[in-house]
Amino acid sequence: MTTHREPLDSVLDTIGETPLVRVHASPDAVPVYAKLESFNPGASIKDRIGKYMLKAMLDDGTLEPGGTVIEPTAGNTGIGIAVAAGQLDLNAVFVVPERFSVEKQQLMRALGAEVINTPSEDGMGRAIERAHELAGELDNAVVPQQFSNPLNAEAHYETTAPEIYDALDGEVGAVVAGCGTGGTLMGMAEYAREQHPDTHVAAVEPEGSLYATFLGRDAEEAEYKTEGIGTHDTSTNELFDPDLVDDVIQIPDRRTHEEMQRLAREEGHLVASSAAANSLASLQIARDIRDGEIDAPHDSVVTVFADSSERYLSKGVYRSFEEWEN
Ligand code: PMP
Which part of the chain is the Tryptophan synthase beta chain-like PALP domain (predicted)? Predict the structure, then answer.
């Protein structure tokens, strides 16, 4: 599957062209395939947007070589941007509320980035404000802001989606992805609808998250443990276009936790909670297509496994449900 067989010049050349692998839990339903994004060098799907956004901003002159990229992020996006910045003669600065995962902050620093902490009690809002203040103090500095930057979705329209369609000779019935910023799903959905306007598109979120309200559903806000997907404040989800989405599937943490264990034990996938939620939603859609409840143009469902469980071992993802912390 992976096409990196020749020697490559840079770690950036290893981003993308990840394997697409069958998920086997419902053998009598239509096939489900997952794109294994932990094969990227920063071990998540966000390497794609790090490389894509930074290159695009260098190409159009928004950033000059030697410049600084400042992003308020505590997660995979920071690692993805740090990998790319290091190879593209750019500096990376991340503004991170203190309480966020220490492992991820260590990886960002190891990649040469600067991490600035803001007090946890001030939340992500303060981190965003601080990022913009810092950018204002420097020449040649930008805040890519993945939540509102169309380049985020474009990275998936240009890379993730075409790779999937190539692998399946265009025979894709449904695309399914958990939404954090919504960039992955929006890029895939736009591409999918161009290939076939009736491609079924489903967003995935934990129970307690509010993406469902975009489709006019009632959703009760609550805390959840599933990481990287979901929203508590839909005003921040500027990329999400409900017109491109047929359904929002909510998965309770307890089922996601069980599916994380099953994926590891039965299928050898050391993937994190957002992948497990995507797996469950995709398997449900595969059964609905088989039963004629969803009318899809082809008998297949595709999704992404965004990152690896190794990044969350300290949060107890493989301990009991009660011991799993967020
Ligand atoms: N899974 C994980 C583990 C993530 O870190 C993210 C990004 N927050 C997502 C899924 C969701 O991706 P997107 O931001 O493209 O919606």
Answer: 12-306
Q: Is ipTM strictly over 0.90?
A: yes
Cβ of 274 closer than 6 Å to ligand 1, yes or no, is yes
Taking 50 as the pLDDT cut, the residues of the chain under it are 1
Tell me if 39 sits within 8 A of 18, measured CB to CB: yes
Strand 301-305 with 247-251, pairing: unpaired
Catalytic residues: 46
Residue nearest to atom 11 of ligand 1 (CA): 180
Q: Residue 307 CA: which ligand 1 atom is closest?
A: 3
Residue 139 CA to ligand 1 centre (angstroms): 30
Could you give the 3-state DSSP secondary structure of residue 101? coil
pTM: 0.96
What is the C-alpha to C-alpha distance for residues 199 and 37, in angstroms, rounded to an integer? 22
Residue 181 CA to ligand 1 centre (angstroms): 7
Going from the N-terminus, what domains does the chain have, and what CATH number goes with each? 11-44+150-323 (3.40.50.1100), 46-142 (3.40.50.1100)
The pLDDT assigned to 1 comes to 45
pLDDT at 89: 97
